Amino acid sequence: MHQARLPADERTVVNGIPVTTVPRTIFDLAAAGDRRSAERALHEAEVQHLTDRLSIPHLLERYPRHAGAPLLHEILAIGAENGSTANDFEALFAALIEEHGLPWPRFNVDLFLDGRHFKPDCMWEEQRVVVELDSRTVHATGKAFDADRERDRIFVANDWRVVRVTWRQLTTNSASLIRDLRRVLGITPAFPGI
Q1: pLDDT digits over 10-25, tens only?
Q2: Contact 100/92 with Cβ under 8 angstroms?
Q3: What is the 3-state secondary structure (H, E, C) of the chain?
Q4: CB neighbours of 100 closer than 8 A, spacing ≥ 6?
Q5: pTM as predicted
Q6: What domains sit in the chain, N to C, each tagged with a CATH number?
Q7: How far apart are the C-alpha atoms of 155 and 149, rounded to whole Å?
């Protein structure tokens, strides 16, 4: 726990409780050094349109030596190009990719095909490979089932390969998943059998 005197534009009140603004909260969260948490907080703020007059870039200008500044500079620079993970499922998948030295994919970035907008969970643009991380919660409904198949059809018709991964596959059979991803991406392992 710490205390600090903050300017009025970094504070607000929610339900009668004084709190820091969303950008300031993310700024302080980044000081803990947990990249995945900071990425998810940024993503959630974007999804929920939680904007403020004083943005994170403004805070970076105001406090260039703040403990969270280096991490936020890195995330914002990479985020613009590669997107960021949106949840624990994506963060775990990203950690697996990093651990096994696969090329770094882009997460949750815009893709336009046949005049339609998509935001794949993860994609390797050069190899034209999309990975969709499917949870039962989101993808088990009849509507989601149909939408997923239509989406896959559109990707395939535009020369993209779609790989669907479940939580169980990621957590209980990651070696097989990595082996298959290497093959799909056209990567030969440094040591046979890996």
Answers
A1: 899 999 999 999 989 9
A2: no
A3: CCCCCCCHHHEEEECCEEEECHHHHHHHHHCCCCHHHHHHHHHHHHHCCCCCCCCHHHHHHHCCCCCCHHHHHHHHHHHHHHECCCCHHHHHHHHHHHHCCCCCCEECCCEEECCEEECCCEEECCCCEEEEEECHHHHCCHHHHHHHHHHHHHHHHCCCEEEEEEHHHHHHCHHHHHHHHHHHHCCCCCCCCC
A4: 178
A5: 0.55
A6: 8-82 (no CATH), 88-185 (3.40.960.10)
A7: 10
Cα Rg of the chain, angstroms: 20
Cα of 74 vs its chain's centroid, Å: 14
The strand pairing partners of 27, in sequence order, are none
Give the pLDDT confidence score for residue 130 in this predicted structure: 95
- Angle of the 88-99 helix axis to the 35-47 helix axis, nearest 10: 140
Q: Which of 134, 86, 76, 83 is nearest to 107 (CA)?
A: 83
Q: Which residues of 92-105 are buried (b: 16+ CB within 10 A; e: fewer)?
A: bbbebbeebeeeeb
Task: Give the model confidence (pLDDT) of 82-114 as tens digits.
Answer: 565 566 678 788 888 888 889 989 888 888 988
Q: Which residue has the tokens 């989101």?
A: 138
Instruction: For residue 122, list its beta bridge partners.
Output: 107, 131
- Contact at 8 Å (CB) between 106 and 123? yes
